[in-house]
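Input.
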Amino acid sequence: MTTSNSHLDAVLQRSNPLVQVFADDGRFPNNEKLPLVLYQNAVKLPQQDPAATFEAIFHANEWSGSWCNGIYPYHHYHSTAHEVLGISRGEASVRLGGDDNGQTFEVRAGDVIIIPAGVAHKNLGSSPDFQVVGAYPQGQKWDMNYGKPGERPQAERNIAQVPLPKTDPIYGKDGRLAKYWHLQQAKV
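Output.
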């Protein structure tokens, strides 16, 4: 973690991530160069205002533009930014990578999903208290794409130009994200 704030350091728990690459399925470009990373139980959240904990961690690690809500109940993706989702309350079934080549994950409070540009995501169902905090690498502005044929050419150009983030949104400069994404970049 890049901050010296002991309160933030205390809430982090080391988590062995699930790492998954999603291939282009014809509808969604996904991202064959950068894997999706899911840290399960990565953050021990306080009962009072858990969203603020994620916001502080993301901000400390140079991920900005944070918001607090849920995950849309339809497939969508961002072609101009990577995205992190911190599950701050409840649980959900989330489909990542689209219907054809995707996979469904069960996520709960304390989990973190790091979604590379181009990877489709959708909420299949959640608990009534489900809440997510999202953010983007500093300087990246998100867009919305839905898998429509006309959006694909520009989306592919955008995805190819999205820079890697400077840090892991949870574990900072020493986090595993940079290693997974830089290694993937080097193999291409």
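Residues 176-187 form the longest helix (12 residues).
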